[in-house]
Amino acid sequence: MGALLELQDVHAAYGLSRVLFGITLEVNQGECVCLLGRNGVGKTTTMRTVMGLTPPSTGHVRFRSGDITGWAPYRVARAGIGFVPEDRRVFAELSVWENLDVARRAAARPGHWTIDSVIELFPVLGALRDRQSGFLSGGEQQMLTIARTLMGNPDLLLLDEPSEGLAPLVVQALLTKIGELKAQGLTILLAEQGIEFSLALADRVYVLEKGSVRFAGPSAALRSDRALLDRLLAL
Amino acid sequence: MTDLSFLFTQFLGGLTTAMFLFLIASGLSLVFGVMRVLNFAHGSFYMLGAYLAWQAVQWLSPLLESFWLAALFAALAVAVLGGLVERLLLRHMYGKEELYQLLLTYALVLILGDAAKAIWGTQQLSVSRPPILDGAIEMFGSVLPVYNLFIMLAGGAIAVVGWLILSRSSAGRMVRAAALDREMLGALGANVGALYTGMFMASSFLAGLSGALVTPIQSIVPGMDVEVIVEAFIVVVIGGLGSFWGTFWGSLIYGQVLSFGILIMPSFSLFSVFALMAVILIVRPWGLFGKPMR
After folding, report:
1. Could you give the ipTM of this predicted complex?
2. Measuring CA to CA, how many Å separate A116 from each of A112, A121, A132?
3. A228: in domain
4. CA B35 → CA B44, B178, B219, distances in Å?
5. A4 in contact with B, Cβ within 8 Å
6. How confident is the model at residue B2 (pLDDT cuts 50, 70, 90)?
7. What is the helix (H) or strand (E) element at residue B275, kind and residue range?
8. Closest CA to B104 of B44, B46, B51, B179
9. Model confidence over B94-111: pLDDT tens digits?
10. Which of A53, A91, A108 sits opposite B189 (nearest CB)?
11. What is the CA radius of gyration of chain B?
12. For residue B130, what is the DSSP state?
């Protein structure tokens, strides 16, 4: 039984500018794995290669041991990978409810998550059902993007910098919710710059630097070894 | 009193023109709004709809006389052609410079125009009015052909149905989401490529249908493609390209300005519309109902 998601020596580039230089990582069923690193080290690109939004130039992406390298994004989504992008990207002119309905139809993967059950997870969205989503606060939009992706009942959730640009209190609330998802058995690959946020959630951590994996290990190792953490993330 | 009924006649004439143009321009505007493709060949699809309707009437005439069947055939045939154009040609232009799309669709204008001439010649063709819509009715002292009334109702019906589909149906929500963020919609699991093909086919269907419906009141001639695309562009420039209601109001304004402009300046009938378009381009380049481009 292999890992749920495996990246093997993935290289990627935007035009002539190369971003990933041989990323190899794996995420096992039920795990929460964090990609840690500063801006521009390739966290987002790694997720985009998994989704097929930026297909790898070389290397392989495997999901449930099947090769999904080069698949169109919609096929990756329908295979069971949900993507929450960093800049939230709600459909701004659609209402909260419409955003959720579009996602439900798009993925066509019925399961535990329905409009009712995501509103139960994020009650604030229930009160804002008919509000145009472009008018929501940053935190509300972030909850909506997560809820929207859950509508596809993914087996693996890719969360790209969920805490970015949010007030500390909102980040705390979000942390709790993601913790709940993890406790329910959802497998999560999280990209973060914030050490507190990621170490609170993750079982294992990959530290990225300049498009390569600089460190791979259990979060406990980083939590207890502050010096190691500082060295890895310094400069 | 005669004065009033005369004005009313002009108003009805303008309304007919307006609803007709709405049928044509709505497809053009929709494809731009969602796919960001400015389809010059939309007028050519309209012309093909007219020729194909004429052709179908000829084929059917030994068996039965059915204008409606011919119109439906023409609209469906143009929709299929539109689907092929999107799949085989336009698809390769997405995400590239818009100039390439313009060149491609303009090339289609030339190719389809010549093809129509090669197949149907350059003489005028016409189709007789379906018997059920023959005749005229009197309304407040002005005479209105029943066929014109039908066009007005058809345009109004397409407006209402189109708006209901876009705002209330799940397919419409999908289309609006695609217009807002195509990549995100794909990452959520929607096959945006298929959605685009469907959109383009629907737009081509409307163009083909309008072409078929015009045949009982206008003769079919080479050059009708370019004439109509210019009118449709004026409509969407006035209303706002990509805006559904903008296209509707743009058509209404165009129809009335044309209809009453003729009264003031009989020899420059189109001048008033062009003047209006120029003013709008200066004051509000994104149109009455459009939004400024990001």
Report:
1. 0.93
2. 10, 9, 19
3. yes
4. 19, 8, 33
5. no
6. low
7. helix B271-283
8. B44
9. 878 888 999 999 999 999
10. A108
11. 19
12. P
Domain that holds residue A117: 85-154
Among the residues of chain A, which ranges form H helices? 43-51, 73-79, 96-107, 115-121, 123-127, 138-150, 168-183, 195-201, 219-224, 226-233
pLDDT tens, residue by residue, A161-209: 999 889 999 999 999 999 999 999 999 999 998 888 888 899 999 999 8
* Sign for the pseudo-dihedral over CA of B53, B58, B62, B65: positive
Burial class, A163, CB count within 10 angstroms (exposed 0-12 / middle 13-18 / buried 19+): buried
Which one-letter amino acid corresponds to residue B165?
A: I
Strands A5-14 and A204-209: unpaired
Å from A33 to nearest chain B CA? 21
Confidence of residue B63 (pLDDT cuts 50, 70, 90): confident
pTM above 0.95, yes or no: no
**Chain A contact present for B173, CB below 8 A:** yes
Residue B236, helix vs strand vs coil = helix
Residues of A in contact with B33 (CB under 8 A): none
The confidence band for B81, taking pLDDT boundaries of 50, 70 and 90, is very high
Residue A173 lies in a domain: no
How close does chain B come to A91, measured CA to CA in Å?
6
pLDDT at A235 over 70: no
- Does residue A73 belong to the interface with chain B, where contact is any CB pair within 8 Å? yes
Amino acid at A135: F
**One domain, residues A148 and A114:** yes
Query: Does A174 map to a domain?
Result: no
CATH number at residue A52: 3.40.50.300
Picking from A154, A174, A199, the residue at the C-terminal end of a domain is A154
* Range B44-61 average pLDDT: 95
Find the CB nearest B177 among A51, A72, A91.
A91
Q: Is A178 part of a structural domain of the chain?
A: no
At A191, list the tokens: 């990209």
**pLDDT exceeds 80 at position A224:** yes
Residue B167 in tokens: 């705002």
Q: Give the whole-angstrom CA distance, residue B75 versus residue B71.
A: 6
pLDDT score recorded for residue B235:
94
pLDDT digits over B8-29, tens only? 888 999 999 999 999 999 999 9
Measured CA to CA, the distance from residue B8 to residue B55 in angstroms comes to 36
Whether residues A74 and B177 touch (CB distance < 8 A) is answered with no
d(CA B6, CA A104) in angstroms, rounded, equals 55
